[in-house]
Amino acid sequence: MTVDPERSRIMRAVKSRDTAPEMTVRRLVYSMGYRYRLHRKDLPGKPDLTFQSRRKVIFIHGCFWHGHDCKRGARVPKNNREYWETKIARNRARDSQHDEGLRREGWRILVVWECQIQEQTALIDLIRRFLEDRV
């Protein structure tokens, strides 16, 4: 397989933190009155939001990159299909390992999918129930 310099440039530009979905959730959680820590490197998977006193974490996942079962997540590019299927499968396996490690350490996990962000009322309810032990 040859490396396309243009494709490499594009892939390097894909952000892993401070993405638009992450920033939306961060602003929402903050406006709800909750305070958190960002991307703790000492925890498996470096959770996007960490609530230390509650022993809870939130991951904000892009539907495509993490293989969600929604319309956007189920889409696989036509070009280089095998590569993308393998990559997304690896991402999902890594997510599972991180979740398992966090649970072993006594953390509770909420995954917020990119597609859930559109429905703010439902998202607020989901986050509040999670943080207040009602999930």
Give the topology, please:
Elements: H1 5-13, H2 20-31, E1 37-38, E2 49-51, E3 56-61, H3 63-66, H4 71-74, H5 81-104, E4 108-113, H6 120-131
Parallel strand pairs: 3-4
Antiparallel strand pairs: 1-2, 2-3
What's the shape? globular
* CATH superfamily caption: VSR Endonuclease
Number of helical elements: 6
Helix content: 40-55%
Oligomer: single chain
CATH class (first level) name: Alpha Beta
Compressed to H and E, one letter per element, the order equals HHEEEHHHEH
Proportion of β residues?
Answer: 5-15%
pLDDT average, as an integer? 91
Count of extended strands: 4
Give the strand order of the largest sheet, numbering strands 1, 2, ... along the chain: 1-2-3-4
Walkthrough of the structure:
With 135 residues, this protein is α+β, with helices and mostly antiparallel strands. The protein has a single domain, classed as Endonuclease, Chain A, CATH 3.40.960.10. The chain is built from six helices and four strands, in the order ααβββαααβα. It has helices at 5-13, 20-31, 63-66, 71-74, 81-104, 120-131, and strands at residues 37-38, 49-51, 56-61, 108-113. The chain has a four-stranded mixed β-sheet, with helices on both faces. The chain starts with a helix and ends with a helix. The model has no long low-confidence stretch (mean pLDDT 91).
